[in-house]
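During the no-cost extension, the postdoctoral fellow (Dr. R.K.) reprocessed legacy sequence entries with the updated structure-token encoder. One reprocessed record is reproduced below for audit purposes.
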Amino acid sequence: MMRLTGGKLRGAIAGICGVAFLLFGYDQGVLGAVIGLPSFREEFNDPDRNMEGIIAAIYDIGCFIGAIIAFMTADRFGRKGSIKWGSWIMVVGTILQTSAVERVQMILSRTLTGIGNGINTVNVPIWQAESFKSNNRGAMLVIQSALIALGHPLSTFMGLASSQDKETSFSWRWPIAFQGVFLLAILLILPMLPESPRWLVSHDRVEEATRVFAQLDGADTSVNDPKIIRERDMVLASVQHEREVGEVSWGEVFTEGPNRNISRVLLGAGPYMMNQWSGINCLAYFLPITFERNIGLSTELSLVIAGVLGVQYFLVSWLPYFFIEKAGRRKILMASAAGCSFCMIMITIMLYVDTIATQWVFVAFTFLFFDIFSWGILPVSWMYASEIMPLRTRNKGVALGVGAHWLSNFVVVYVTPIAIENLGYQLYIIWACLNASFVPITWFFYPETARRSLEDMDEVFLNEKFGITHTRSPGHKKLDFEMSKEEQIEAYGENGEKKEMAPVH
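Re-encoded structure tokens follow.
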């Protein structure tokens, strides 16, 4: 393994996680970029609205299956091993998609690609969350969310460029094949990086985990450094406590128990479902044909506008990096949901009035919807479950959340072409109401995770019963392993004995 340490090692882990998220965003947009192209429609016998929905949405069924596979296997194979197998499955699916000549082959290959991506979308956020400290964990996941956003315009412009070859199937095969570039990067660099130290501790590989903690901290940090020992001991204590409860079982995730497992599963699945039921993929999966069928733009102009929107989506999605830890997950999630609801109300009104002027206002509010979505719902949905699940059941709990995400995605994507055709502006009333409902749900039930370690969240759930939360603000105390040398002496004394336990806020 390449001897990376400190910031370089964390940067490499973040980079590979970023490539995986970029691929996820690319996959969400690529079919919408090619499904309206004449060569694609000719190749697959001009699919009707129902068949369009099946071809697009079957990918999400594959992702759901992949999440369930991760539920069953990832604790055995580890975070890295699961990502490796998920990526190889995607390689096979990409090859079969690129070479598809019939609808059946395209449907089956998109299912297979989805299975690989479902495995990865469970394990990538967990691997990253377990490898970073709480003060930069949220910020790093904001970067990954921004890369999801970058995948959309990348796939759109790839489709626009290749569509200039109107005579051959290259115009749609190349954008699909380009997924292989991301997968190659993941598979080449992944073996050089360490496994999650928390997963190592949970599998009794404590010495290896201690070395990884030291590597992540920096080249000058030894395995005997007090802050490394304390960080390891915090995780080890959490693992030992969970083992005292007994061996994990299939049914444990669905029961409350001392660790409040079912509460955490339900709360963790919520933001994933908010992501989908906001209506984002009603627009994102079919953005070019949404512009074509709602306001009558040409295929080429629709691709251009969708690409420009995607670039703006990517640029503004970086903004939460600067405030997500200070403001916390709850505030930005509620503000984002309220803003998305307002945008959907305005989109409904513009499509109802249906003049040339209001059609372009519809485009403007679509841009604004993507921006507001990227400031809150997008980053929180991909980080929250991995931040609240106990280590013992984290993989299974996150897998269930991701599974809920992909099932919701399937429903949204499948019905969108039909709903656009039959409901018109009324479709967006549904999204407005759903977004509005996320605000009180978040306020009453979702505890704040910002600036709290994964182990601190165990304390939160042990101290609160299921129902209305009282943990509504980010934590204020620095974690032990974030302290300077002087702060460690102040907190622990010269001999390293802790003076008092910092409370969980």
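Residues 49-98 form the longest helix (50 residues). The chain is about 75% helix and 0% strand. The remaining legacy entries will be reprocessed before the final report is submitted.
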